[in-house]
Amino acid sequence: MKLIKSKNYQEMCAKVARIFAAQITLKPESVLGLATGSTPIGMYEELVRKYNEDRVDFGKVRTVNLDEYIGLSGDNDQSYRYFMNHNLFDHVDIDKAKTFVPNGLAADPEAECVNYENIVASMGGVDIQLLGIGNNGHIGFNEPCDEFPECTHVVDLTESTIQANARFFASMDDVPKQAISMGIGTIMKAKKIILMANGKGKAPIIYDTVFGPVTPQVPASILRFHPDVMIFVDEEAYSEIAKKCPDFEPETL
Ligand SMILES: N[C@@H]1[C@@H](O)[C@H](O)[C@@H](COP(=O)(O)O)O[C@@H]1O
């Protein structure tokens, strides 16, 4: 696992976007694993800029997203499908038929999980998977629990996640209580993984992820067992490590 510290959010987003642009340029038919949340928005902006200015070509790219809320349609502005269209897909020359997000309106969510796991597998593996991290260490919507979930599954969101997400909804009642998420096993199959975190609020969980025990109670900690993981943080998200491990030397890339 490599930990890469940037001065600020913009610098971090630029570094990650460069890696994605290189991936797409070197392998135009790449399978990108994509994430939502506020953290990757600046990275997607940079990628759109690279599409416009550096002519990064998304024409053959395929994408799979980590998760989706149950009960929200792709038209709902809080759905992750809407997020992806709005922040990336609408602004580049990607073929939307090659972009996949779990169907939050599936009549049978369990069957949708099996279907989605098959879609990811049929693409021949994710070349590079982007992740954010929840304050409790969740990745995708894999919440802290007793065992790492292997495959795409239905998740009951924790109270802390529901509260953290409430800021995006008109009222608490509107916040979905369930989601479909790739499993930890699905995520760990990606060839390369990049996790981004910024801001002081993420500092304790970044410390736990990098230095705490590997446990399903901190789902992101499993990433330490993946052979090719880069964690990108800004100074604020790094601050707990700086305090507790003053001799640790992060990379700067
Ligand atoms: N399912 C998403 C995660 O994929 C994301 O990493 C997390 C953090 O969001 P933010 O980046 O807004 O802090 O939020 C949601 O729970």
TrEMBL record:
Pfam families: Glucosamine_iso. PROSITE patterns: GLC_GALNAC_ISOMERASE. It catalyses: alpha-D-glucosamine 6-phosphate + H2O = beta-D-fructose 6-phosphate + NH4(+). GO terms for molecular function: glucosamine-6-phosphate deaminase activity; identical protein binding. GO terms for biological process: carbohydrate metabolic process; glucosamine catabolic process; N-acetylglucosamine catabolic process; N-acetylneuraminate catabolic process. Pathway: Amino-sugar metabolism; N-acetylneuraminate degradation; D-fructose 6-phosphate from N-acetylneuraminate: step 5/5. Coiled coil: none annotated. GO terms for cellular component: cytoplasm. The keyword Hydrolase applies. The active site is at residues 67, 136, 138, 143. Keywords: Carbohydrate metabolism, Hydrolase. The keyword Hydrolase applies. Its EC number is 3.5.99.6. It comes from the Bacteria. InterPro entries: Glc/Gal-6P_isomerase, Glucosamine6P_isomerase, Glucosamine6P_isomerase_CS, NagB/RpiA_transferase-like. Residues 9-224 form the Glucosamine/galactosamine-6-phosphate isomerase domain. Catalyzes the reversible isomerization-deamination of glucosamine 6-phosphate (GlcN6P) to form fructose 6-phosphate (Fru6P) and ammonium ion. Belongs to the glucosamine/galactosamine-6-phosphate isomerase family. NagB subfamily. PANTHER family: GLUCOSAMINE-6-PHOSPHATE ISOMERASE. This is Glucosamine-6-phosphate deaminase. It comes from Fumia xinanensis. The gene is nagB.
